[in-house]
Amino acid sequence: MENTNQAKKKAFLTGITGQDGSYLTDFLLAKNYEVHGLVRHSSVFNRQRLEHIYQATRRSAQSFLEYGTDIEQKSNLILHYGDLSDGSSLARLIAKIQPDEIYNLGAQSHVQISFDIPEYTGEITGLGTVRLLEAIRETKIKTKFYQASSSEMFGNAEETPQKETTAFRPRSPYGCAKVYAYHTAVNYREAYGLFICNGILFNHESPRRGENFVTRKIAKGVAEIVAGKRDHIYLGNLEAKRDWGYAPEYVEAMWLMMQQEQGDDYVIATGETHSVGEFTEEIFSLAGIDNWEKYIKKNPIYYRPTEINALIGDATKAKNKLGWEPKIRFKELARIMLDAELKKLGIIVIRN
Ligand code: NAP
Ligand code: G4F
């Protein structure tokens, strides 16, 4: 049980509107944090993943839709406009909020798209981290910093499974930008004595995953086939293997890293790997459809100029030092994702 007499901790999240940002917000609010989030302006509404929180606290729909900030400060979730490309807004917000913990989850996070917009990816995913760290250094506030590092940094990995000491051999502009951000974070820890953690997270998925990442795309596509709304799913490389975990469990690992005495770097993974084809087969099988291959059409546009053939993580350090272990495994993750998509289409799922 939480001690409600203690002063409320304040967290500042970039990427709060994303998959991980929204789960981390749920997690921190349940721990009685005051959560501040950076949102960027967009011409379409980009706060769907946080809407359940606003509905639960019955805040003014007007301020949420128009400005998104809790003008009357009645809830523990406060959104602020800003952008990882805009260092002055980051410094101003950090000085104003004085957060105890900063989680840098914001990024151009799509690997294939990073080949189309490499410069922008470097700007946000790489330099965005430097801007935040400089803001901390200049404002001199005492805070802890979490950097969302990625298994994509291992690229064509030289050893299997990958752990904290495995060399980085990135295979995409996104991977290169994350390697830059990782090393910058380590350098600021060593140079300025800041509390900084790199969470090197392997792929983690959920019903809140972006629709253009492969697991969500497949789960949504199969649910639509079940509903008679489409006949095929267009995919790229089915041979690539990934270590897929469940996002809500991974945000807990982020928080655990930030509660340690010292900042450090940790791999977070399930230690299991499966191909995109195996994931597709599993989802079709859960939907009761045989001959899954006849529903898949290969489209070359989904192939990447360079691909990572296989990733699998070794999270022994996280288990020993944080007491963190994944509970949701491949088959259950697939079920959670398919059932969420079926539910959205009004299809009732009864499983034994
Ligand atoms: P996501 O769903 O794609 O969310 C990315 C977030 O970054 C969104 O809130 C997005 O805002 C925000 N963002 C993008 N550009 C920005 C900018 N210029 N300024 C400020 N914010 C910006 O990603 P995720 O899956 O939650 O992942 C969270 C972090 O972990 C990312 O850094 C990702 O690279 C990293 N990571 C993810 C995985 C994974 O498997 N999910 C694994 C390892 C590492 P909008 O909502 O406005 O687009
Ligand atoms: O779902 P994906 O796009 O994820 P990817 O590239 O592994 O990146 C994700 O995980 C990283 C951690 O390792 C994060 F850092 C990153 O931010 C992101 O969250 O693709 C997974 C695999 C790839 O091998 C891809 O080539 O699926 C293959 N794939 C096959 N067909 C496809 C498709 N990927 C997508 N997105 N769309 C397809 O149609």
Automatic annotation (TrEMBL):
<dbReference type="Pfam" id="PF16363">
    <property type="entry name" value="GDP_Man_Dehyd"/>
</dbReference>
<feature type="domain" description="NAD(P)-binding">
    <location>
        <begin position="13"/>
        <end position="337"/>
    </location>
</feature>
<dbReference type="GO" id="GO:0008446">
    <property type="term" value="F:GDP-mannose 4,6-dehydratase activity"/>
</dbReference>
<dbReference type="GO" id="GO:0070401">
    <property type="term" value="F:NADP+ binding"/>
</dbReference>
<keyword id="KW-0521">NADP</keyword>
<keyword id="KW-0456">Lyase</keyword>
<dbReference type="InterPro" id="IPR016040">
    <property type="entry name" value="NAD(P)-bd_dom"/>
</dbReference>
<dbReference type="GO" id="GO:0042351">
    <property type="term" value="P:'de novo' GDP-L-fucose biosynthetic process"/>
</dbReference>
<dbReference type="InterPro" id="IPR006368">
    <property type="entry name" value="GDP_Man_deHydtase"/>
</dbReference>
<dbReference type="InterPro" id="IPR036291">
    <property type="entry name" value="NAD(P)-bd_dom_sf"/>
</dbReference>
<comment type="similarity">
    <text>Belongs to the NAD(P)-dependent epimerase/dehydratase family. GDP-mannose 4,6-dehydratase subfamily.</text>
</comment>
<feature type="binding site">
    <location>
        <position position="232"/>
    </location>
    <ligand>
        <name>NADP(+)</name>
    </ligand>
</feature>
<protein>
    <recommendedName>
        <fullName>GDP-mannose 4,6-dehydratase</fullName>
        <ecNumber>4.2.1.47</ecNumber>
    </recommendedName>
</protein>
<comment type="function">
    <text>Catalyzes the conversion of GDP-D-mannose to GDP-4-dehydro-6-deoxy-D-mannose.</text>
</comment>
